Amino acid sequence: MTLQIYRAKEKDWIEGCKRQNREAQHALYTFFSGKMYTLCCRYIKDKMEAEDVLVMAFTKIFERIDQYKNEGSFEGWIRRVMVNESLSYLRKSKNMYLEMDIAAADHEPDYSKAENELEAEDLLKMIGDLPTGYRVVFNLYAIDGYSHQEIADQLGISENTSKSQLSRARALLQKRLVEAERQLSQKIN
């Protein structure tokens, strides 16, 4: 689909959704749901829960589509709703900061070429396996591009807690990458 066709369709979807047209809502959902489900899964480990969050977020999008003012990327606006809904779900479901691996934070990472030998899918799985607090902060900072201040505001934590969670997430990822590289080299030899 060319950019011009996409923008025309996007405009039609937005206008249709503002009129609560079910076909427009279905088209919008169909177009964005796969990508947004993947985004939700980065924050929420359980696939069924991630799907629930996806549906709740799309419901909010359809209810509040009048709040989109055609400023900036429409997909960016949808992504923000998805991230906010995922974070809201995590806050309601449990305290995401109880899962801490202090030993991982104290571990001095061995910077090797492990990350170059692994597939992106392996790295995404490792990120998904991080404790909830680490995973959320890592995703917000490293993948979605939020600042520590924005993360702190979103999660109701201090900026230093955000920095600490990111540091611990990176250390734990590095430890797991080194271990994966070691296992990979043993299989080859």
Could you walk me through the main structural features you see in this protein, from its secondary elements to its overall organization?
With 189 residues, this protein is mostly helical. The protein has two domains: 3-93, Rna Polymerase Sigma Factor, Chain: A (Orthogonal Bundle), CATH 1.10.1740.10; 102-188, Arc Repressor Mutant, subunit A (Orthogonal Bundle). The chain contains ten helices and no strands. α2 crosses α3 (47-63), α8 (132-143) crosses α10 and α9 (148-155) crosses α10 (159-188). It is globular and about 60 Å long. The chain starts with a helix and ends with a helix. Mean pLDDT is 84; it is low at 97-117.
Question: Element order, helices and strands?
Answer: HHHHHHHHHH
Structural class, by secondary structure, is mainly alpha
Task: Please summarize the sheet with the most strands.
Answer: none
What is the helix fraction of residues, given as a range? over 70%
Mean of all residue-level pLDDT scores: 84
Query: Would you identify the regions where 5 or more consecutive residues have pLDDT less than 50?
Result: 97-117
Annotated CATH homologous superfamily of the largest domain: RNA polymerase sigma factor, region 2, helix turn helix motif
Q: Rough shape?
A: globular
CATH topology of the largest domain: Rna Polymerase Sigma Factor, Chain: A
Radius of gyration: 19 Å
Number of strands: 0
Going by CATH, the architecture of the largest domain would be Orthogonal Bundle
Strand content: under 5%
Number of helices: 10
Report the CATH C-level class of the largest domain. Mainly Alpha
> How many structural domains in the coordinates?
2
Cα-to-Cα separation, first versus last residue: 46 Å
